[in-house]
Amino acid sequence: MKLRTLTLGLLSASTLAFAAHAESITIATVNNGDMVRMQTLTDDFTAKNPDIQLQWVTLEENVLRERVTTDIATKGGQYDVMTIGTYEVPIWAKQSWLLPLDKLGDDYDVKDIIPAIAGGLSVDGKLYAAPFYGESSFIMYRKDLMEKAGLTMPDAPTWDFVKQAAEKMTDRANGVNGVCLRGKAGWGENMAFLTAMSNSFGARWFDENWKPQFDQPEWKNTLQFYVDLMKANGPEGASSNGFNENLALFQQGKCGMWIDATVAASFVSDPKNSTVADKVGYALAPDNGLGKRGNWLWAWSLAIPAGTQKADAAQKFVAWATSKAYLELVASKEGWANVPPGTRSSLYANPEYQKAAPFAKMTLDSINAADPTHPTVKPVPYVGVQFVAIPEFQGLGTTVGQLFSAALAGQTSVDDALKQAQDAATATMTEGGYIQ
Questions:
Q1: Tens-digit pLDDT profile for residues 91-109
Q2: Domains located in the chain, CATH noted
Q3: CB distance 261 to 243 below 8 Å
Q4: C-alpha dihedral over 395, 397, 403, 407, to 10 degrees?
Q5: What's the whole-model pTM score?
């Protein structure tokens, strides 16, 4: 008995000593379902890396952005791994705020990351964030209403076709709007949609010398088409509708078409929540024959701040959480339908995933149709499809979004909204030193 007690004592002391030498890394992440699920699966990581302990700081999206931006800009050093978006990565990498991810391991397979997603997370050919989850945008439409209208949705439609279909599908007497699009003001709300749309109309935020372009005909054509389309065939109060509002309308059978995030497909096709689950088809976001489609590109990604003292341990965690093996782990626990989408080519070649997600191919095609390094028809000095990767864009994008939302609501004209957008952008770019 004494020997057993002594042995247990020695084991306990050894365990304590080991724990004292274990390295602890702090991970700041967003409170969405995929990230919450990841935290429940980290026993797999700690089993493979017993010398690394994980500390979590899980925050609502807006709070997360504020906290990690403040921490990295002030070199606060609170976090060893940060969850950030495609918007932040190129800006922070150019500021030397992020470490390049060059120690992800021999079996990580960086080349398997979908090129469009990797391009948005790279600077000068170096990957600065590893994508955990990716998305584009596409058309979700009612196959029954399209058939009733006597039309067939092409896989790659034009804006003219969308307008024609919206006109024929609109049935206000029965509460059906031909098309539902974002109208709520915000750089990540209506301007995510309108900036992506403007790319397909040949528009751009700035020319090669950073001069704002809202006074050019391409932006007039974009905004006028959008406002006219929504007034004739969109829902009432559309200027207040964002992703969640349009999702609810579509699920209730009140939209013939909805152009929005590819992640919405799993919601509109879920019979538990959608009254039209068995009637949904998918198509690429529209174009105008100019070589660019009106779809965006986004990824929630894991990055390592340059100020961390635990870079090696942090890279081990990032490699685990964004690996092919992690996708297989989720599938084994939750089923293939719940695997984080939009990051790896191999996932979309997997027959099991294709079977679980009938919208998979169109999602991948939509992601591949976006090029963050060449987002527009004419050349531009910035990267980003539905945003401009400069620090000033968050504020400017929201200001412009408010002006365009007012035009949709009929509170101002399209011409006045564009003039005010041009003035606001010129003031911002002059103050920022981009133009004289």
A1: 999 999 999 999 999 899 9
A2: 2-135+297-356 (3.40.190.10), 137-295+381-431 (3.40.190.10)
A3: yes
A4: -160
A5: 0.86
